[in-house]
Amino acid sequence: MLEMFRSDTRAIEGLPVRLVVALVVGVASMSVMLNMLSGVQGLATSELDVKPSPDVIEPGERDLTFTVVDHEGNPVEGATVIVKSGTAELDGEGIPRAKTDDGGTATISLEPDLAANREDGTLVVDVKPPAGSSFVDRRENTNILVVQA
Q: Which residues span the membrane (predicted)?
């Protein structure tokens, strides 16, 4: 009986193919699991939102208050609010910006203007999260509507 197993070489021929298939499936499975684990860290971030007050204004110089909140509505201290021209223009030099205080609010002086023959336009509001925080700003924030009186 022992002699019969020594002369049978069929099991050895199939072994390398099975090892290669098992290795490929194992590597693919491990890649999927590691990708899922790296995605878990992304879930630990909190989206920021900016609430301008007022969000509808007329052309001309004015102060606007911005409140930065996290996904639960809690104020965020140390975030930088930035206002840029959209379809409405901003007069003045530089890009208007301010950091939020401990109540999550920042005040920015703006002087929006509308192009000739335009009845309305928008100003774009962005927020830069505080350094070293788990906050992100991926979604679009509330734009400021500038309306001709």
A: 15-37
